[in-house]
Amino acid sequence: MNRRFSKFIVPGVILAIGLIAAGAALYRPGYLSSAYYLGSLIFLQGLLAAVWKYEQRFFPVLVVAFLWAGMSVPFSTVWTAGRWAILAVGAIVGFALYIRSEHPRFSTFHLVALFTVLAALVSAAVSSFPVVSLMKVLSLLLLFLYASTGARLALGGREEKFFPRLLSVVEIVVYVSAVCYLVLRRPIYGNPNSLGAIMGVVAVPLLFWGLLTTEGQTRYRRAMFVFMLSVGLLFYSQARAGMLAAVISCCLTCVALRRYRLLIQGTIAFVIMAILAIGLTPSEQTEDMPLRREGSSLTAIFLYKGHEEGGLMQSRLTPWDATVSVIQQRPWFGSGFGTSLNSSEGDVAVGEYSTVSAATREHGNSYLAILEGVGLLGVLPFAALILMFAVKLGGVFAWLRRTANFRHHVIPVTMVLTAGLVHAGFEDWLFAVGYYLSVFFWVLAFSFLDILPPAVPAAVYRPITDFGFATLGRDPNIAATER
User: Fold this and answer.
1) Could you tell me the CA-to-CA distances from 450 to 64, 120, 340 in Å, in that order?
2) Are residues 437 and 477 in the same domain?
3) Could you tell me if 265 and 311 lie in one domain?
4) Domain count for the chain
5) Which parts of 280-416 are beta strand (E)?
6) What's the whole-model pTM score?
7) pLDDT at 178 over 50
């Protein structure tokens, strides 16, 4: 935190809170016996502690708050409202600190992100639930503001410490998930698709990169074990979108590195873990848990989910058709950002991705969902933002193929963002700020712009003839520079 800020403002806030607490103890002692007020006081103290060392502490606190609010665990309802307060404080404090930092930088990406918020604001004016839509626009503004400022302070220049700690946290999440799902049979993430999303978009890509960069036999074995465990949980969830996202992300990395042998070994390992996952899946249906269908093949379970007669995309065609129908009804400005139109029941407000109730409607595609919400006119900045990130991701894979520098910290971020963009084509969460994966994705996305490698000149190739075939050789000077 800025020294001048911490020297005067933070002690002043602590003194003010102390005086308020002393006054409450003297004149309103009943407040101190109330669980609500005591809980609020503890919450404020924890938030102040996170702000005290903003760069080191605030990002983990934010992610934990959103993750806790979306899980089926004790005290999750407390964080349902508390997460928004944390996001608001993080955005405001982060903006103030970033502007006062040395050489604050904003680019075209940040301008386009601002246009997405303005487009969402215009669409909220035509929504049948303008208050709900405006609140969702505000949440998008706070997320993009935090991702553009405060989150960049957490990663900027701290990559050497940030990513090892991130891998350690992901390992803990995988172990806890394995115990809850495989041992206790408790679906802490609710919908099995949420388990698949966490494993396919975050855990598997990050742990795969950690496996490639691990040194030492003991550490390599541990990295291999937790990676295979995350793959097993991914197949256990039977979430096809998560599987596809993880496979594409890891395969692109192997191809860029020219590690084709690793690609074949990984394919074999994936098949083995898929078979083991089927054996661990319960044969009787339980709430929010995957189901093992006796006598079904791997293809029937993971591709068709036991409904071969309906086709491969049966579970997606119905929500896609409903969404396209709404787009046709309100093509220009949409139904309102974050709200949806149900042709049979009128307008309904869209809730969190991880829950489905009578008041929600599944879209089955983040891109169709935002098109329905903001319309053909409002979707242009959203499409531009996604396209700009996709182009940058492709450039990183091309750079990786030239340099083979898989230890650069941009690689794990690229893998997560690639998996996220693929996964968002089959699940509705990319712009659902209340969902923890959306927060994690956009924080990494805006930080990704700061850790991009410098422009690397293309290698100079010269033709070498060998047995009548033209091969390519690299200039040794450039190859040495890249190493």
Assistant:
1) 24, 26, 35
2) no
3) yes
4) 3
5) 339-342, 346-349
6) 0.81
7) yes
